[in-house]
Aconitate decarboxylase (Bradyrhizobium algeriense), 454 residues
Amino acid sequence: MNDPLDALLDHAFFVEATKIPTETMNFQLRRVLDNLGCLVAGYDQAGTSMALSLARRWSGAQEATVIGSIEKLAAPQAAFVNAVRARALDFCDVLSPGWHPSSSDVPVALAAAEMSGAGGEAVLAALAVGQDVGQRINRAAQANGFFYRGFDSNVLGLFSGAIIASRLLGLTRAQMSDAIGLAFDFGIGTFQHYQDKVLAVRISQGLVARHALEAVFLARAGISGPKRTLAGECGFFRLYGPAAPDLAVLGENLGERFLGEEATCVKLYPSCGVTLALTEALLAARGRGEIPFDQIAGLSLRISPAMNVICGGPYAPAETPEVDAQFNVRYVAANAILRGRATLDEFTASAATAPDIVAFAQRIDVAEEPAFGHFDQCEAIISNKDGARRVIPAQFGRGWPENPPTQDDLIAKFLQCAAFSGRPGWRDGDALIAAIKTLRSAASVEPLIAAFAA
């Protein structure tokens, strides 16, 4: 029962940390930095207390730490809580068409490393290999289409997470295969939670992390999993793929080039990745004095089809206004124009329901433009009271690989997250950053976890 996944699993099992390029390992360390910053900011946000309460009920062991405390839960449950917190503010990294790799990968890696005693280099290597395999599958599936037939593409995190945990927990090659098949058997999510703007967006990320670890534990206990995971009659590509996959891309430069950095967006604004270009273009135009917001008579947005599916709906903040704001182009545009900034403070429930912002957002017209091929391509058309009209185009927001952030950007983002957090002990972001920087040379993840519990 051969499957295209077999060659990827050989690679995932056998490749040594010393064979992974330094720049790849450095990128994985940046993933840890960004993820833990997002976790710090999202620590007490809506849905996180319920996730922790349930995880405590579901735990029957003390295996891994709930980051920010000394409390230990069963490893899948600790990873579940940490992933929900990292995803809570949608400030975490993203990879087209909506896979948030680090928000499940990093919690899985830290939990598995705590259990096994793995060192920092092994953790970064596992993260690199897991993301590489997940992105290869993603590229093959997206070769002839964009969305996964309505499924949340965080389903890819089941593959990457199971590989990460398999490496760190010392599974055999056969057990790793079973773990991937079992993880795939769980499935995960649909894009409907984005369109309906509900807390399931955050919780599903925790389920990815939890299920990846559970699949590894099942495989290690002797439970067999599906073998033809990618190309079987009911395999990944047939169930989720938008069209026939391009299997040739699965093995391109396998073991030589580790995919991930070339496609990962590290967000610098806390909203859906397709809105970053719009935010940046409007903030820049406002900063240059090109948007006399007190003279605006009307505003319309022309947006890509992908942008319209995820964030193009009316703006009517309801049960979870912060989620409504994160996934709505009307709010993003109104916020940038009226407030002139897009930080975590502008995406709280109170900010999302401010009457002037809501009123302005509801006046904005939105139209889909099929000719806009890139998912974040859009333009804002501003009409002034004097009849003047300005068109502001946007594409490749800062943070996407085409417009990458600097190291200073990442540090500034982490410090913003630390300042936003409700935990006084995390206000010293520089100390937390220093602990993260030493991860690669660390003999275990314990010093890093202890630094966040201080």
Notes: The beta strands are 64-65, 72-73, 94-95, 264-265, 296-303, 365-368, 378-384, 389-394. The radius of gyration is 21 Å.
